[in-house]
Amino acid sequence: MKYLVVVPDGAGDDKIEALGGKSVLDAADMPFTDGLAARGEVGMVRTVPPGIAPGSDAANLSVMGYDPSVYLTGRSPLEAASIGIEMADDDVAFRANIVTLEGDGAYEDMIVKDHSSGEITTEEADELIKAVNEAFADDRRKFYTGTSYRHCLVIHGGTTGMTVTPPHDILGKRCGDYMPKGEGAEELADMMKKSYDILKDHPVNKARVERGLNPANSLWIWGQGKKPQLSPFYDKYGLRGTAISAVDLIKGIAVCAGLNSVDVEGATGTMHTNFKGKADAAVREFRNGKDFVYVHLEGPDECAHQGDMDGKLICLHDIDQKIVKPIVESLREDGEDYRVLVVPDHRTPLAIRTHSSTPVSYVIYDSTDEKPEDKERRFCESSGEKGRYFDNGYELADYFFGK
Q1: How crowded is residue 281: how many other Cβ atoms within 10 Å of its Cβ?
Q2: CA nearest 292: which of 263, 264, 313, 261?
Q3: How far apart are CA 43 and CA 39, in angstroms?
Q4: What is the C-alpha separation between 77 and 2, in angstroms, rounded?
Q5: From residue 345, how far is each of 44, 64, 70, 257 by CA, in Å?
Q6: Is residue 77 a part of any domain in this protein?
Q7: What is the rounded distance in angstroms from the CA atom of residue 301 to the CA atom of residue 119?
Q8: Are residues 294 and 342 located together in one domain of the fold?
Q9: Virtual torsion, Cα 114, 116, 122, 126, nearest 10 deg
């Protein structure tokens, strides 16, 4: 049996007036996935436990079968693992976004305009990370280049006691209301404020402004945590698997869980990612003997953070036609028995442009247990609410993998 999990990040949404009271998934054109639902199972699952912030770290751990209340030590340590950073037990890792701030005067009075700096390229970002390292790195702390706007800071002997806020949660809001607070916060806030003076006139940003792009003019530091300890995925489910994603967080979960992680050229973590490359990589992994492939698509989430409803709809159609369809068709052609799970890690409602803990819909299709066709079963919340409900995401994983 082969197991395919497709995660359209942030695809879940609430009912939207502009869509006639439908959610984005309900309105999306996803005929192949809906066809699997019609001959499979739909339901709802809560991927983020109560008391835990609805981040992609907790949600993807949950979808992969790990209880976030047990295994989540912070987002950035997982990303650090992806980059290849060897953390000591007393190291603390932080996510360091390069963001776009807007306004004049004091740093605290500026507005968070864009958490991704216009989806800056990794090559440009690397130049900016070099500049902040020249200013801040020493034998205790260092910044590491990740992907696009997502980077990492490691502080040796650091603390996790401060309160920090993800920048995608405060778009359009004043910086001063969301600066780090608590133990160790002063050091982070100082680097954030000083980074603006370092980056605002950097040649990379001057060139971006000339091209009409958002400048990556400040660090925003958040997502702290210590070295993670995940039990091996093979020990949990007896399956050898691969994760395919453009996002360091997902790659890091894979590394910590003992899964293979495949880098795909042109995979950007946006709606313009290399869909074909990801699908081809999944097919190769199955044909090379892997039992399980986890394909993560960040595009719907990024569109939702930008308030781009049309982009989210287009991205979901592309995931259906360029990811789910070709991979499943290849499994059929190869004569494999297979199970497919399509599930968002969390909702990212367009109305709020950030993550929500509200349960998400899922589809499970089993080629060895095809149900009588029912076209009322679709991949959307209104259909899922009529099916099975899992109160914990890791329970859905246990169910899917037959544990």
Answers
A1: 21
A2: 261
A3: 13
A4: 30
A5: 12, 10, 18, 18
A6: no
A7: 13
A8: yes
A9: 60
Q: 3-state DSSP call for residue 94?
A: strand
Q: Please name the helix (run of DSSP H) or strand (run of DSSP E) that holds residue 249, with its range, or none.
A: helix 248-257
Distance separating alpha carbons of residues 232 and 293, to the nearest angstrom: 15
Single residue among 199, 225, 251 that ends a domain in this structure: 225
Q: Do residues 96 and 169 both lie within one domain? A: yes
Q: Which residues of 284-320 are buried (b: 16+ CB within 10 A; e: fewer)?
A: ebbeeebbbbbbbbbbbbbbbbbebbebbbbbbbbbb
Helix (H) or strand (E) holding 277: helix 275-287
What's the Cα-to-Cα distance from 43 to each of 123, 326, 342, rounded to whole Å?
A: 41, 24, 11
Question: What whole-number distance in Å separates Cα of residue 146 and Cα of residue 218?
Answer: 16
d(C-alpha 110, C-alpha 103), whole Å: 5
Structure tokens belonging to residue 212: 């009409």
- Asked, for residue 258, whether it belongs to a domain, the answer is yes
The pTM (predicted TM-score) of the whole model is 0.83
Using left for φ > 0, alpha for ψ between -120 and 50, and beta otherwise, residue 20 falls in left
Element spanning 5, H or E = strand 2-8
So what's the pLDDT on residue 126?
A: 98
DSSP 101: E
Instruction: Check whether residue 246 and residue 375 sit in a common domain.
Output: yes
Residue of 244, 255, 256 lying closest to 298 (CA atoms): 244
Looking at 12-66, list the stretches that DSSP marks H as alpha helix, in order from N- to C-terminal side.
Answer: 24-27, 31-38, 56-63
191 plus 339 within the same structural domain: no
pLDDT of residue 14: 97
Cα 88 from chain centroid (whole Å):
25
Domain hosting 375: range is 2-72+229-400
**Mean pLDDT by groups of 10 residues along the chain of 403 residues:** 98 96 98 98 97 93 96 89 90 97 96 96 97 97 94 95 94 97 96 98 98 98 91 97 95 95 93 96 98 98 95 98 98 98 98 96 98 97 98 97 89
Structural contact between residues 98 and 130, judged by C-beta atoms closer than 8 angstroms: no
Domain assignment of residue 78, yes or no: no
The CATH number that applies at residue 306 is: 3.40.720.10
218 plus 234 within the same structural domain: no
* Same-domain status, 102 and 41: no
